[in-house]
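Run log, item B.
One chain of 330 residues. Sequence copied directly from the ordering sheet:
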Amino acid sequence: MTDSIRAIVAEDRGGKTKGELKILSRADLPAEEVLIDVAYSTVNYKDGLAVTGKGRICRRTPLVCGIDLAGTVRESRAAQWAVGDRVLVNGYGLSEDHNGGYAQQQRVKPEFLVRVPAPLSLFDAMAIGTAGYTAMLSVHALIDHGVKPADGTIVISGAAGGVGSVSIMLLAKLGYRVAAVTGRPELADYLKGIGASEIVGRDELARESKPLEKERWAGGIDSVGATTLATMLAQSKSEGVIAACGLAGGVGLPSTVMPFILRGVTLRGIDSVQCAMPRRVRAWTALAELIDTKLLASVAITEPLARVPALAEEILAGKIKGRVVIDVNA
């Protein structure tokens, strides 16, 4: 690889950040201990906010966007990582305070790295990506709370998105019955094909809810927030748990304390960005064991780096289905 590095770089444009394809040199990369030949990244909702500038994600500019990456160690001054190691990074402030994965090479802190577990390929790692890793953290939250398949249906909002799609695949593999919430009824066959048992219209949940409603869900995973999350809480069964991991529908939560004090419902926040390393490793180990890589490949498309700005707009508009893998070298 030459010294020229293609990257999506967010720069200030009159007080607003915007990500565009640029050519960097290796000297432009940060002075961190591990240099990675990046193979793939992916497109998540947060990436959409960063690249378009529609969210205050990049805290400084210029900054390489991309909240995750997978690749091979090219150079290392850290004892725990050797040339040729297959590694990935999720979160840890990539695309916020640190240069991210939308680049052909990147230097990162050694403590950010997770070894890609066999049998996953680098492509698989980013077909899962931050969305799938967040889904696994959310599934673990349900399991750790004690929710079992016999307890009832698990509801998944934003079901056709990255977190939702992988959550459905994982829960179905573990034997849970899953209700997939979507505003795109034409995707019903897609959702059932990856493991959903029931399709719920978005409008059934994205509305003003009563403090308590009929008990429907043993647990849930929510990437939407706002009224959707409030309705999921109001419909939770006694001692149910909802894992909240996103805000595609807004940052507010128009709920009451009644689900918590009258049904013992738990709202469990999922922070994938600064998650402790043991939980990260646990999640990726479980993903390697549970993910059907053929099914995963069927819900993932591959796009080149130059398409990232357009894809960022599409994911914010709710037009992305499943997973989008970015081949940074295409």
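Observations after the first pass:
- The chain has two domains: 4-116+299-327, 131-269.
- The mean pLDDT is 96.
Flagged for discussion on Thursday.
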